[in-house]
Amino acid sequence: MTDATSGPDVNSGPTPDNALREADAAEKKGPMLAADGTPLKKSLMRALRREKLRALMLIAPLLIFVLVTFIAPIADMLFRSVENEIVAETLPRTVVALEDWDYASGEAPDEDVFAAFYVDMVEAEEFKVHTRLGSRLNYETTGISSLFRKSGRGVGRMDTDEYTDAFIDLDPAWEDPAVWMELMAADTTSEILPETNSAWDSWLRILKENDDNVAEEEPEDFLYAMLYRDLTRNSDAVAAYDGPQAALLQAAAEATADIPEVSIKEQFLDIDDDWGDTEVWGTIKAFSPKYTSGYFLSSVDLKLTPDGVEQQPDNQKIYLLLFKRTMFMSLTIMVSCILLGYPVAYLLSNLPMRVSSLLMILVLLPFWTSLLVRTSAWKVLLQQQGVINDILVWVGLVADNNRLVMINNQFGTIVAMTHILLPFMILPLYSVMKTIPPSYVRAAKSLGATPWTAFWRVYFPQSVPGIGAGSILVFILAIGYYITPELVGGTTGTFISNRIAYHISSSLNWGLAAALGTILLVVVLLLYWVYDKIVGIDNVSLG
Amino acid sequence: MDGSAANDAFVEFDRVQKSYDGETLVVKDLNLSIGRGEFLTMLGPSGSGKTTCLMMLAGFETATHGEIRLGGQEINNIPPHKRGIGMVFQNYALFPHMTVAENLAFPLEVRKMGKSEREEKVKRALDMVQMGSFGGRRPAQLSGGQQQRIALARALVFEAELVLMDEPLGALDKQLREHMQFEIKHIADNLGITVVYVTHDQTEALTMSDRVAVFQDGRIQQLDPPDVLYEEPQNSFVAQFIGENNTLNGTVKSMTADKAVVELDNGEMIDTVPVNVNAVGDRTLVSIRPERVEFNKDRLAPDAHTLKAEVLEFIYMGDIYRTRLRVAGNDDFIVKTRNAPDQRRLKAGEMLEIGWRPQDCRALDA
Fold first, then answer.
1. Claim to verify: residue B149 and residue B193 sit in the same structural domain
2. Does B159 touch chain A if contact means CB atoms closer than 8 Å?
3. A446 at interface of B, judged by CB pairs closer than 8 A
4. Which of A136, A184, B46, B246 is paired with A346 by a 20 to 30 Å CA distance?
C-alpha cells in the first residue's frame, strides 16, 4: 500500500480488504501487545520488577560494602592524583596577583604580590595551614617547607606596625573597631578600598575562629598596611567617597603622603632571602591551579617547573626504574610460577585421588601459613649465614669468605614471591586440567603422536586457559605486592608499591602516591586489555 | 568373515591376564583370535573386563601376564603411538581446539605426510562419512552424530588395518544409534578393516558383528556369531544377557547326549537339550526364548508336552504383543507374539496351555 502506483486500490477508496490488511500490517510493525493491550515489553518489565527488586535487596549489603570500601577509595585515589586545591585555597590573593608575574623575567614579583601574600600568610598563619602548604610545595622545591614555617613566625613581627601607629597618631578613631566596622559595611568601600576590604574579610574569619568579638578587638597591622596601599593608590576614588566616616578616610588619604612607605617585599626578604628567589615564586605559580599534572609528571621522573615540563635530575630519577623493575620482576615471577606450577598441576590432576589429595595439601599448606612466616623462612634460608650458604660452603662449592648474596636483592624477592604466589598458579591450572579427559591424549597417541607431540599439540593447548587465568592472577598480585619486597627486597628488589607505601605513610605525599597507584592501575588494566585482545578473556577459566 | 577366521589370526590374545591392584584379576586367562577383516564385538556388563582388553590392545594398559600379538608380532612392549591402531573413543575425543579438518589431518601430520597428500586424504575420509562440507567447523559446532562420524573418519584416515571402538554410539539417541550401526558396519566392510568393538548394548552387538565375545567376570563366556549366540547360549549368563529369556528352575532326572528330562520345581517333567548340565540330579535353569513359546495348539507338535499357564498381563507394544504369564510358579514368564491379523489378544486371568519345541528349551547351569 505504500506503492501508490500499483495495485487495484489506487483509484477506489479503502475496501474492507484494505482495512484488514492495514490492521495486519500495523500488528506486524507495532510493538507486540499483551492480552490486556499494553505493550508486551512493558508488561514483562512490570512482571519482572518485583523479582529484580528482590534480587537487588539481596545483593544490597555487598553492593554497599563494595561501594564504600572499594569503589569510593579508588575514586578518591584517582581524584587525589590530580587534586591541588591547597595552593589556591591557602593563598587565594597571591595566586591572583601572581597571574601578572612572569617567571621568565628572572626577577622576583613586585610589591603587589608580596602585599597579597602578606595578607594570605597572616590568615594562613592564624589557621596554621601555611605549614601544610609548605610541606606540599616542598615536594616540588626543597626548602619551601622551612621557608613557610619561618615566614609564618615572621609575618606578625613585621614593621607594618609603623602604619598602625601612623594612622592612630593621625586620628585615634582608627583604633576603634566600630569605625572599621562602619567603614567596611559601607557599600562602596569594596570598590575604593578593595585590598582593605579583602583583608577585613580575613580579619573577620580569624576572629570567628578565635571566638572573639569584632567590636572588642583592635584591628591588626595588616589591615592598616592594606588601608595605606588602598589610600595611596585610589586617592581619587577616596576623595569622591561620601559614605560613612568619609571625613576620616579622606583625612587619612591626605596624610598618607607624609607616612613613609614600608616595603612589604623588603620585610619578607628580611625574614628570608629566599623570597627573592624566582624558583620559589615560580613553584607557587606553577602549582596554583586547582588541578595539576604535577604528581603524574613526578611519577614518570618528570618535573613541572615554571618553565614547563622538565626531566628530573638524573640522581632523582627512580620511578620509571621502579616501574620497569616491577614489571620485569612480576613477569619473572609469573614465568617462574608457570614453569614450577605446571608440572605440579599436571601431576595433581592425573594422579590417583588418594595421592593427589596429599599433594594438594602440600600445595595448600603454604596458603595456610602466615605470609610473614613464609617470608622470614626465606630469610633464614637465603641469608649469607643461612642454611643454603652453609650447605654450599660445607660442600665446597662456595668459599667461606665469598658467600652468595641471595637475599635483600632481586633474587631473594623473586624466589620468595614465586613461592608465595605459586598456589595462585597451581589452583587455576589444576581446575582446568582436571576437566581435560585423558582420552584426548590417548586419542592423540592412538593416532600416532609421540607422547611429547600428544602433550604439546593436544594437552597443552587445552590447558592454556588455566595458564592464562593463573598468569593474570599471579601477575596482578605480584605487581602490587608490598610485604615481601619490603622484607627481602633490600634496595634492588623493591617494587613500586613500596614507594607508594613510603609516600602514604612516611613522606605523606599522598598525591604522588595516588598518581603512582593510578598508573599502576592503568598498567594492569592495559595489560588485561592486551591479554583480552591476544588470548581472549573468554579463554580464561578458573575451572 | 564366516566366524572361523581364527586360522588367519590378525589379533591374538594369548593367556592374557590383567590386574590393577595385585589382588584381583580383571581379565582372567584371555585367549582370543581375531581374523583379518573381522568385526568382533566385546559385549558384557560394566566391569566385565571388556574395556580393559581393548585398552591393552590399544596399548594404554599393559598386560600383567600373557602375550598380545598383532599380525603375528608381539606388541606388549610397543607404545600406543607405534601400533598403528585406529581408535574411536566413547566421547569421541575430538580435539576441541582444532577444526574438523585439522583433527583429521593430525594423524597424517605426525606421520610427516606432505600437505597436498594430507588434504586429499582428509577430503576422502570426510566424504566417506558424508561430512565433506564440515572441514572448517569446530567439533563443538557439530551434533553428536556428526562428531561420531568425524571420530570414525579420524580413526580411518591414516589407513589403520585395525580399528578399535569403545562404545562409540553410547551417547547417541536410539534412532541415530541404529542408523550409525549400519553405517559403521558398511564402512568397515567396504574398507575390509578389522574392527574390535566394545559395547554393553546387546542389540548393537548382534546387529553389527561377525562374532561376539560375551564377557563376564574377566572371562569370555561365549564367542560365537550372533545367531549362534542368541539361539544356542552356552550358559545361563549368556542366555540371560543376550535377548529376553524365560527361565524355569528344575532338577535333571535323566540324561542322554541330546536329551535331558528335567523335573520342574512344581513336579512337571519336560524335555530339554542338555547344554551345561553334567549329571542326573544337577540343579538346572531351563531357558526358553519368549518368541518360541506357543499357545496355539494347531502350531504345536501333536505329542508336544504342554504346561498350564495363567495370563497375568497383556501389553500391546505395536509390532508385537508381550504377555506375562505365571508358569510353574514363575510369575515373569514372557510370551512374545507377532501383531498379525489372525493373532489372538490374550486377556488377564485367562488359562492357557503353552508348549514349545524341545530343541528350543535348553538346560543350562543353575
1. yes
2. no
3. yes
4. B46
